[in-house]
């Protein structure tokens, strides 16, 4: 408790408070604008924030992450166009509420639900992250290697509709991570001395998330002007409060554990929350499909709770479970920080300031953004060509500023085209970026394990935790096959198909 109070006193200093406000505002703005997510924004800001104190930069990024989770609900409700994939479910009932003149109530339950879930999620994060870190610090290299294998496979096999495409993306990421002379021998440098130190993760992240996404979205620009439903000041009456508070809590219960799991993400818990609320709606069940407030309250709470859950494995183990977490991990490595159990011992002031700032950011989201909902709606009128031209400009500037070499700009273009092609052919980008980030650590842990055992491969499963993790890995790989053999059971692919069907319903 003393550490948290110390962190809170540092989080509310004028400088850190300014970064928190900036992060929340920026995150909400990028969440509102379709196609510009928090991962892209954090990637674009990576080169800019290298001259900022690490604690201030991480507070900024955390504000963007939380704000982005909330901002996506605005476009889902007012436009039926989710700014984030995690806000797709919100559009199902939220937009129908808006069309029946209840946009204000939909926005209010989304904002308050996000605050409730974010606060509970942050309390759980504060309680669990140090405990998990204390547990992980005693693990040896074999167990740590197994955990990273689990994270890579989970991100690869769970996300997307095709495991083959996921493994292709992972192979690309691991290959990019191999470039350089980490072992003393040049690997994949093609005789180019500029590749001797490897490819900077900032260049890869900016290219894949910013350039690739900007090119992809620009290629699908709407030709007709957006029709925005007018909204007044968000508010809820007593009946709305009565119908919302239980879905907020149930959504939190779905969102936090899924966020903490490798590849849990926010899409699946929001879907499960929506299904849960529809089944428990009772006399209001007939309103589902026509604008039920429970269908907005639950998924939005699950969405924000998952964001808090994501930070548990990131801070305690050093494993990212979402695209934004992966870019934040890259930022921490750029500051010379090593996320994981040692972080709590080496940088306690930074960690607790970051955790305390999450409470501040969550409160700011409610205080600042709820009255500003009509203003965020107007942001959607920004001409998209100007918007994406600006993104490409800052992407080039950021890549050049990494080493002040045009070679990095050439790599930016190359990986930007790769990012566009991956979206074109439905290849998920998260396995690639996680592969690039984790490859050096995966190699380090593998080397340590084999070095201590003098090359004995069986050392990789010599610890109980490693054995358990490999059993989970095997179950993860074999579970879909087992489910196919059981008649009438719904496997992950069918769940993914159900999510896709809901997304298709939103687009109509």
From TrEMBL:
Q: Which InterPro entries match?
A: DUF112_TM (IPR002823)
- Annotated transmembrane regions: 17-36, 56-79, 106-129, 135-155, 167-186, 198-219, 311-331, 351-373, 385-403, 459-482
Which domain of life, per UniProt? Bacteria
Keywords assigned by UniProt, alphabetized: Membrane, Transmembrane, Transmembrane helix
Q: Which residues form the DUF112 domain?
A: 17-433
Note the PANTHER family from the entry.
TRICARBOXYLIC TRANSPORT PROTEIN
Kindly provide the name given to this protein in its UniProt entry: Tripartite tricarboxylate transporter permease
This protein's species is Cellulomonas xiejunii
């Amino acid at each position: 408790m003393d550490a948290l109070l110390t962190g809170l006193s540092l989080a509310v200093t004028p400088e850190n408070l300014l970064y928190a406000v900036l992060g929340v505002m920026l995150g909400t703005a990028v969440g509102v604008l379709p196609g510009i997510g928090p991962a892209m924004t954090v990637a674009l800001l990576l080169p800019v924030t290298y001259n900022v104190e690490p604690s201030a930069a991480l507070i900024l990024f955390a504000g963007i992450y939380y704000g982005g989770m909330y901002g996506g609900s605005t476009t889902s409700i007012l436009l039926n166009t989710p700014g984030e994939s995690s806000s797709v479910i919100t559009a199902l009932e939220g937009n129908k509420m808006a069309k029946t003149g209840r946009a204000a109530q939909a926005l209010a339950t989304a904002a308050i639900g996000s605050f409730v879930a974010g606060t509970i999620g942050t309390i759980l994060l504060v309680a669990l992250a140090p405990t998990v870190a204390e547990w992980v610090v005693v693990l040896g290299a074999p167990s740590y290697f197994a955990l990273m294998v689990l994270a890579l496979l989970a991100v690869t096999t769970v996300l997307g509709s095709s495991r083959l495409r996921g493994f292709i993306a992972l192979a690309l990421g691991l290959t990019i991570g191999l470039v350089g002379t980490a072992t003393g021998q040049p690997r994949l440098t093609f005789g180019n001395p500029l590749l001797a130190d490897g490819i900077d993760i900032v260049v890869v992240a900016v290219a894949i998330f910013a350039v690739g996404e900007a090119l992809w979205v620009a290629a699908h620009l709407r030709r007709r002007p957006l029709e925005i439903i007018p909204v007044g000041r968000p508010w809820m009456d007593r009946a709305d409060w009565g119908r919302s508070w239980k879905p907020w809590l149930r959504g939190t219960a779905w969102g936090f554990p899924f966020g903490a799991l490798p590849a849990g993400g926010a899409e699946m818990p929001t879907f499960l929350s929506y299904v849960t609320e529809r089944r428990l709606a009772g006399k209001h069940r007939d309103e589902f499909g026509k604008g039920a407030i429970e269908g907005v309250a639950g998924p939005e709470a699950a969405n924000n709770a998952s964001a808090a859950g994501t930070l548990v494995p990131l801070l305690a183990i050093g494993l990212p479970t979402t695209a934004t977490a992966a870019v934040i991990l890259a930022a921490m490595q750029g500051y010379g920080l090593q996320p994981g159990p040692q972080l709590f011992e080496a940088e306690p002031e930074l960690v607790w300031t970051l955790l305390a700032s999450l409470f501040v950011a969550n409160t700011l989201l409610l205080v600042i953004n709820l009255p500003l909902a009509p203003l965020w709606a107007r942001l959607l009128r920004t001409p998209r060509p100007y918007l994406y031209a600006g993104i490409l400009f800052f992407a080039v500037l950021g890549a050049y500023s990494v080493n002040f070499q045009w070679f990095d700009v050439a790599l930016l273009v190359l990986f930007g085209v790769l990012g566009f092609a991956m979206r074109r052919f439905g290849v998920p980008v998260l396995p690639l970026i996680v592969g690039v980030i984790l490859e050096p650590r995966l190699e380090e842990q593998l080397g340590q394990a084999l070095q201590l055992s003098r090359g004995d491969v069986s050392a990789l499963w010599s610890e109980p935790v490693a054995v358990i993790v490999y059993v989970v890995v095997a179950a993860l790989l074999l579970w879909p096959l087992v489910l196919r053999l059981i008649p009438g059971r719904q496997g992950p692919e069918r769940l993914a198909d159900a999510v896709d069907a809901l997304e298709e319903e939103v687009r109509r």
